[in-house]
Design a protein that fits this description.
This protein has twelve helices and no strands. The chain is mostly helical. It folds into two domains: 2-22 and 145-191, Endonuclease Iii, domain 2 (Orthogonal Bundle), CATH 1.10.1670; 30-137, Endonuclease III, domain 1 (Orthogonal Bundle), CATH 1.10.340.30. The protein is elongated. Mean pLDDT is 91; it is low at 206-212.
């Protein structure tokens, strides 16, 4: 396996976690997937699922369509359970989808960075949300969510770091995983589920630069 070959730390991680079982959410449309992403922000899974179901139930189709969401009353979205901000976010997503600034139907045809640039135009969709879309909707293999707290904590534990790594340090640490940084990130999330004594290997050597 590539990750084992390029990173000795990943040998122990993968041996303890097992095979990667990352699952994609490919059902429905890209638009509905992004609606779901906005709804689920900062909510528990059960509460978010309930609100998402109510939002979808407002519309005639199996999944919301941009014209329907753009035409929806703000108060109606609020009554479905969306916060004031999230109601604005889903309408903004619909507006970008309709005016052509977000090529919603052909996002999968763009490069990773083009998708991030397109999605982050939308209020409520930041770089982290765009990366999650790349990873779990499109199955892009080389995404490293450097702002993700779980990935940061996983790297801290796996690499036996005294401090939580900065986003810059996450990028540096995960660089060797390319072109499979999505898989490496998945393993960092799983590291946090291991027993406290699961990882027993020696602390990786830290290369120190000579004083300048």
């Amino acid at each position: 396996m590539h990750l084992k070959r390029v990173d000795p730390v990943m040998v122990e991680v993968i041996d303890n976690v097992g095979a990667c079982t990352l699952q994609l959410r490919t059902e429905g449309t890209h638009f509905d997937a992004l609606i779901r992403s906005i709804v689920y922000q900062q909510l528990s899974g059960k509460a978010a699922a309930t609100i998402h179901g109510r939002v979808r139930a407002m519309f005639d189709s199996d999944a919301p369509l941009p014209p329907q969401v753009a035409a929806a009353e703000h108060d109606a979205l609020r009554k479905a359970g969306l916060s004031n901000q999230k109601a604005q976010y889903v309408r903004n997503l619909a507006e970008h989808s309709l005016n052509g600034s977000l090529p919603i139907e052909s996002l999968h045809e763009l490069s990773d960075q083009e998708i991030i640039d397109a999605l982050t135009q939308v209020k409520g969709i930041g770089r982290w949300s765009a990366q999650m879309f790349l990873m779990f909707r499109l199955g892009r293999p080389d995404v490293l969510p450097d702002l993700d707290l779980g990935v940061q904590k996983g790297i801290q534990r796996a690499y036996r770091m005294r401090k939580l790594p900065s986003p810059k340090k996450v990028v540096e640490t995960g660089a060797k995983w390319a072109p499979y940084r999505t898989i490496g990130s998945w393993y960092m999330w799983r590291v946090l589920e291991l027993p406290a004594d699961a990882l027993r290997g020696p602390r990786p050597r830290v290369e120190r630069q000579a004083p300048r």
